[in-house]
Amino acid sequence: MNLKSSVNTANVLIYSEDHFSAMGLITLIKLYRPNLRVSHIRSVEEASLAVSGKLRVLVAVATQATNLMSLMQTMQCLRETKEELPCLLLSEDLNPVLPALLPDIPTLGLDSPIRTIFESITGLMTKKGAKRQKLVELPLLTQRQREVLCLLASGSSAQEVSSVLGISLKTAYVHRRDILTRLNICPSYYRGVFTARLS
Q: Can you give the pLDDT at residue 187?
């Protein structure tokens, strides 16, 4: 089965840039529910193939190597294609940036027990689970601040943020300051976590 038909007929889509994480998750889902069609996508282009009404849940896997901008754009593309699509985010180290980027999506650690992950996925597939996910607080950050945060979290400097997003350097610094304040991140934590991605 080619990629287009497998994505188009999937009940569960797994977004992951890490092939091994995705295959492990697919094996887990197939172990408990062998009748579900599960497909793995890695990009916005592949996500755009999912136009079927059969898609019931999206699971995104975020590791240290994940491009957060691509993750956010892919999830946004799928949620625009299929309104009210239930989503779950599995994070390698429960990165504090992810809830700010995707405030309305529940997050679990990748090291959570297998049963917990599976129950979360199946819970979202029920109508009650999908409705429960809609009850969220307003996001802490604006869309532009999320874009800035994605770049900062991937190790970009304020100068790089300025050139990538086409904003002034001063605006990039203001966004960075506002983000740190809203997320209650102290400067030493910021330097330790975000700049560590550069090395």
A: 62
